[in-house]
Amino acid sequence: MLLATHSLVGAFIGKEIGYPPLAFLLGIISHMLLDAIPHADGPDDKPDQKESDPISFDQYALVAVDIAMGLVVFIYLGSKGELSTSAIWGAIGSILPDALDNVPFYSGKLRSIFSPLKLFHQFHARIQRIKLSMIAGLAVQYAIALIFFILMILL
Prior knowledge:
Blueprint: H1 3-17, H2 20-35, H3 57-79, H4 85-101, H5 107-113, H6 115-127, H7 134-154
């Protein structure tokens, strides 16, 4: 899943829970549950994709747009008073697994230094094994993000 989707779900959980440590933990758990939903994370997300394959410009562009959209949404939610400390910790917990496992600049090195991250990577990859086409996979994610954005505002 994209960071915007993970962070919106984590923020909503945190907002509703109201206790930052639990929001953080539930944010991590929500990450795993969301990753188990069939989806696609962009043009490079294919069943036969290897970690050693180069990352395309299109994939970098999608990640940049995802991060920018997430920031805009969170600035908007913050301006409306919808981001409590607990919501922020839920969002942090929800993106932490990808921050540790999916950043090509350092994730491989972290796994080689800290063996539990290698086991986590294997688990993380296994729960994401069902892939959709890019259009369908992104549509699933943006639908989830939209639902949780609306819930953040309404509840």
